[in-house]
Amino acid sequence: MRYLTEQDVTQLLTMQDALAAVELAFKAQAAGDATNESRRRVRANNAILMTMSGAIASLKVFGLKAYTVARGKARFHVSLYDTTTGELLALIEADKLGQMRTGAASGVATKYLAREDAKTVGIYGTGWQAQSQLAAVCAVRNIESVKVYSRSEEKRTLFSQTMCKELGIANVTPVADPEAAAQADILITITSSREPVLKGAWIKAGTHINAAGGNSILRSEVDDEAIKRANFIAVDSKDQARLEAGELVFPIEKGLLTWERVQEVCHVVNGTMSGRQQTSDITLFKSLGLAIEDVATAALLYRKAVEQNIGKEI
Q: What is the pLDDT of residue 1?
């Protein structure tokens, strides 16, 4: 077994790697080559253990991610197995892996759903996950300017300065008004808010939205109006969305949306379904995070680690 630390993952994994792995996972999902099991939660002593597992037959791997939240700290690990022998190939510290593959999922959705000429981004949220969300979108579109909203002036200013340097985009601007961030071609919500941070009334025609912050049925980052205005709505998994996508479950309960209108983005990525029909369409991708994304990324990491002799053999 090869053990990879967070430092190893950071050294090995690029955004282009993560985008390629997640796109492969979506194509495998559409082709019936992947199996995904939704997140499960176990609670004890004010701590939570979450597990999610998946397999990609063509890569001859399956695996699981297990992560805990206790005393305000999260810890992540991915176990990768060989489907031929059942051997444990790698145990990977997976905080960075998860950050990158979550951003990459939004990046792949943006590649297939956003307008080709999209040049501006509005992002809600300035935490750890927001960094990879913005990096992934900038990797698939020629972004010229970004507006950053957070309730904290200090956080939105620091995030803007950091991403300006990392992405080489001169015009990354913090904004104090959430509506100002909505005037963009691509919108990203990546917050921990239980209440909507993005209102449908603010969204202009032709916008693509990545709603990536919530994986609880009790949380909604976008309001009902945004759902009503969306011409095309996609998720990574409808099974998981029924359990975790508050943005969709509540509008469906109110009769504002039906599950028949919600599609899995993998079919757009695979070319068997069209997403955006015209430039004026509003498209929305609700990202929940799938185990097959972790497995595909872990498989790529494992191959690179073996090739470069990085990590510890146990």
A: 96
